[in-house]
Structure formats: C-alpha cells, structure tokens
Amino acid sequence: MTDKKSLILGWRQPATPSGSRVPEGKAGFWHRLDDGRLQCDLCPRECKLRDGQRGLCFVRMARNNAVELTTYGRSSGFCIDPIEKKPLNHFLPGTPVLSFGTAGCNLACKFCQNWDISKSREMDTLADAASPEALAQAAVDHQCRSIAYTYNDPVIFHEYAVDVAQAARDRGVQSVAVTAGYISTIPRTSFFAAMDAANIDLKAFSESFYHKICGGRLSRVLDTLLYVHHETSVWLEITTLLIPGQNDSAAELEAMTRWIADNLGPDVPLHFSAFHGDYRMRDIPSTPVETLTAARNIAQSNGLNFVYTGNVHDTEGGSTHCPKCGTRVIERDWYQLGQWQLDAQGCCKKCGTWVAGVFEEKPGHWGRRRQVVRMS
Q1: Burial of 339 (0-12, 13-18, 19+ CB in 10 A)
Q2: How far apart are CA 185 and CA 166, in angstroms?
Q3: Would you say 237 and 270 are in contact if contact means Cβ atoms under 8 Å apart?
Q4: Has residue 143 got a pLDDT over 50?
Q5: 102-111, 193-202, 356-365, range with the lowest pLDDT
Q6: Where are the domains of the chain?
Q7: Would you place residue 278 in the very low, low, confident or very high pLDDT band (cuts 50, 70, 90)?
C-alpha cells in the first residue's frame, strides 16, 4: 500500500499567484517502490516505471530518478472555438474559448474521435509551444473569456494545465476541462481547484464497457463526477457518446440517467452525442438521430432538466428550455445562438424560474467560427 509520506514526497504544488512553481517538465504525484521503480500516482493506472520507461499515457516518463511530463509547454495546436463546442451549454453561452491540447491519453478507447492526437506517440506533432503566461495572454489578446484544455485529456498534462489555469485566473480568464475524469483522489483536488467548468465524458454505464472498450473503470469516473459536483464550485456538464449496439440500450440509459438524477440532481446538463466510425471501431454505423432523441426522452422522463443532442443538426435537441414552463430560453442552431429569453439573473423571462448555469446579462456573439491561433 502506498504510504502517505511517500505520496507527499512526489506531491507538486500548483502555481502560486507570484508565479513560483516547480521547474517545467517536472511532474508530481509519484513515489518510489521498494524495487527501485517509480509509481505514477496521477491516475488509477498507477504505472510502475523503470528509468527511461513511459506510462500508458506516453507523456509521463521516469528519468533521472523522477517522473517527468515530457509535453510541458508543447501543444498540438491552438484554436478559438465557440464554448458550445466543448460542449458547454450553460457556461458563458456564445463566448469564444481558446482551445488546446497536447498528446497522449490515459484511457485506450477503441472509438476515440481524436485518436491522431490522443493516441499519438510522435512528439513532433506538438509543433506549437507556449508558456502558461503566453497562452493566458493570448486568450486576453483574442478576447476569449476562457481557455479549454481539450483534444486529449488534460488530466495527463496536469502540471501544465494547472499552471496555465493559474496564469489565466491572474488575467481574469476562466478555465474549462474537457476530460474523461480518470484521475486519482489526491491530484484531482489541485486539478479541479484550478478549473471553473468541466465537461466530463461518461462513456457508458457498465464496468464491462469501460474494461473492454476503454481499458478503465467506471467506478473511478463516477467518483470524479460526485467529487466535482458536491465538493467543488466547478460548473459541471456531462457527455455520453452513443455507440450503436454498445452503450445505447434503453436499460443502460435508464440506469445511467437515474443515477445522475439521484446522485447529481436534475440540473446537471447531459449531452448525448452521435458516434461516427473511427480509430479501431470503423465497422460500426453512425448513431441515428432517432437514437439520440430516444435517449433524450429517457433522461427527461427520469427528471433531468437539461438534456441535449450533439454532432447532429437538431435545433430542438440543442436548445435550452425552461424546466418549469417549457419556454425555449436559449435557441441553438449548431453552435449559433438565436432566441434568448433569460433575464439578467438567468431566469426565464416568461415564468421567472431560475435556469442553472453560469450566465451573463447578455450572451456572447462568437457564433460558429473556428479560428486557428499561432503562438510565436
């Protein structure tokens, strides 16, 4: 069993407002085993590494008697997206978000939609580089309200993400984690303390799916969902990619949405997204719109107030409705906002019911644009 003292020896404090932090590339959350190997304690995999070996994520490496984050300060690219693309429908709607990722992943999903980045073993794909301060300043310069840690899972570049988030917070820019939530108890505290919003993938609601298709454990993701919702101030939304014949049965969706309603409450937004064949699951057809609509109906019947369909053109399924009177309070056509029926306090203009979320008096007007950003 890992003792508390050895974990603290590998602990890495997040950046402080003064900017002091552990040197770039040095990772935390590890300890030395009796046989000389270093155990990475960042995620439930607990990879045990000899000098020169990398973890399953490929980016955390044992070298020079320590674990290093080999992708610190390096990215697969920077883009400005609509916040709705993350997807986040209840967090600063209509605003632009500066998005970036690195390489690697700590899950092994056979259906990965960003496999060229998350499964990459080529560090040369990380063509762009930026210090946390430069990245945060770029968000300010491009009038982005937030930075999204996305494309691959930010959990594995924890130290870089936390440093960027601190630099962003110092400049009044918020941070958004797009993650599978596969992180261990101690590191998740500092990770989510740095974030303002998160979209967590709930890939299925069966241990069998997580084990066979993702190489992980459902229970650890559920723990993260409970932690974020009940023990942090992070705005939370959930996404489930529905794969025909794999995780889209009525029974599984009933169980999943009941768990969300019972354990997280009715106001956590849930996004059902359409699958398209990719990576190692190219022989499965794309998700029919009817499947997404049926899933949305099940979730709503189980008491969830805000359920969305994604990766398809569905204005009804993409719009936000008042949970009391049913008024369409935020209209969405893909990522373009239309009708806006929320008052300055985030309440339905028709009946006065509060709509859960992080809203401002007026929505943003970024629209559907996607803009590539080059870092010098």
Answers
A1: exposed
A2: 21
A3: yes
A4: yes
A5: 102-111
A6: 75-373
A7: low
* CA–CA gap between residue 177 and residue 363 (Å, rounded): 21
Over range 369-376, report the average pLDDT: 88
- Tokens linked to 339: 């009708």
pLDDT in tens, 295-324: 999 999 999 999 999 999 999 999 999 999
Q: Distance between CA atoms of 299 and 279, rounded to whole angstroms?
A: 29
Which string of DSSP letters, residue by residue, matches 316-341? HHHSEE-TTT--EEEEEETTEEEEE-
Strand locations in the chain (E): 30-32, 38-40, 48-49, 60-63, 66-69, 74-75, 77-82, 96-101, 128-129, 146-149, 174-179, 197-201, 235-242, 270-274, 307-310, 320-321, 328-333, 336-340, 371-373
* Token pair recorded at residue 43: 């995620």
Quickly count helices (H) and strands (E) in the chain.
10, 19
Per-residue tokens: 303:
């008491």
**Predicted local distance difference test score (pLDDT) of residue 26:** 75
The SS3 call for residue 362 is: coil
Helix, strand or coil for residue 23? coil
> How is residue 5 written in tokens?
């003292």
Class of domain 75-373: alpha beta
Report the predicted TM-score, pTM, of the whole model to 2 decimal places: 0.91
